[in-house]
Amino acid sequence: MTYSTNFSIEDLRFDNYGLIPAIAQDWLDGSILMLAWMNKESLTMTLETKNVHYWSRSRSEIWRKGATSGSTQILKEIRFDCDNDALILLIEQNGSGACHTGEKSCFFNEIKINQSDKKEKKTTPFSNICSELFNTINERSINPSEKSYTNHLLTKGSNTILKKIGEESAEFIMACKDNDKNSISNEAADLIYHLQVALMHKGVNWRDVLAVLESRRNNN
């Protein structure tokens, strides 16, 4: 648990109804999952039990997330903003997802900024592109496309995938030797992509890699 050494719930600024907004964020990949409200009691219960509790404005009662659905949230870390009037909960989401619709995130609707944008709809707003990339690779494995390079690699299997990792590693090394920052960035991106294809082929989730990195955070 991370919080200020002298932290007190009394330091937070609750609104006139005794509530404070709380954003739930995936502790590994940074996905914004949901926004709900807390009062002092629900926040205290969350800190004491590490099971996230919110205040329901419609029912006027405290509710433990996932009490009926099984989609519980385990608190990993909590932060408050510079004005002390908003919270971010870094949580481990269990079950089908944070949203009552079954989606991982409640924020799956998108307002198009550029109407000419032909990109596929993102169902979850990730804070890092690597997690989004792995989800795309996973989608390709579930719904193959003849024109997909990812499906080509997955169909060819380990020898082709591992050969590509070797080639991309060598190209990354040469880009570093040439001190070409543009080439280094591009080759690093190619290497990460092919590593993720290998992970998918071997049944290893990108989140497993993130969990290892998280466990090593304080050792670096």
TrEMBL record:
GO cellular component terms listed in the entry, alphabetical order: cytoplasm
Phosphoribosyl-ATP pyrophosphohydrolase: annotated segments: 130-220
Domain Phosphoribosyl-AMP cyclohydrolase: from-to ranges: 34-108
PANTHER family, alphabetized: HISTIDINE BIOSYNTHESIS BIFUNCTIONAL PROTEIN, HISTIDINE BIOSYNTHESIS BIFUNCTIONAL PROTEIN HIS7
Keyword hit for Calcium: no
Residues covered by region (Phosphoribosyl-AMP cyclohydrolase): 1-129
Family: In the N-terminal section; belongs to the PRA-CH family.
Domain of life: Bacteria
Keywords: Amino-acid biosynthesis, ATP-binding, Cytoplasm, Histidine biosynthesis, Hydrolase, Multifunctional enzyme, Nucleotide-binding
Principal place of residence: cytoplasm
Signal peptide segment: none
Reactions catalysed, as given in the entry: 1-(5-phospho-beta-D-ribosyl)-ATP + H2O = 1-(5-phospho-beta-D-ribosyl)-5'-AMP + diphosphate + H(+); 1-(5-phospho-beta-D-ribosyl)-5'-AMP + H2O = 1-(5-phospho-beta-D-ribosyl)-5-[(5-phospho-beta-D-ribosylamino)methylideneamino]imidazole-4-carboxamide
GO biological process terms held by the UniProt record: L-histidine biosynthetic process
E.C. number: 3.5.4.19, 3.6.1.31
Gene for this chain: hisI
Listed Gene3D superfamilies: MazG-like, Phosphoribosyl-AMP cyclohydrolase
Compartments reported by the entry: Cytoplasm
Record has tRNA-binding as a keyword: no
One of the record's GO molecular function terms: phosphoribosyl-ATP diphosphatase activity
Pathway membership, UniProt: Amino-acid biosynthesis; L-histidine biosynthesis; L-histidine from 5-phospho-alpha-D-ribose 1-diphosphate: step 3/9; Amino-acid biosynthesis; L-histidine biosynthesis; L-histidine from 5-phospho-alpha-D-ribose 1-diphosphate: step 2/9
InterPro entries: His_synth_HisIE, HisE, PRA-CH, PRib-ATP_PPHydrolase-like, PRib_AMP_CycHydrolase_dom, PRib_AMP_CycHydrolase_sf
Name of the protein this chain belongs to: Histidine biosynthesis bifunctional protein HisIE
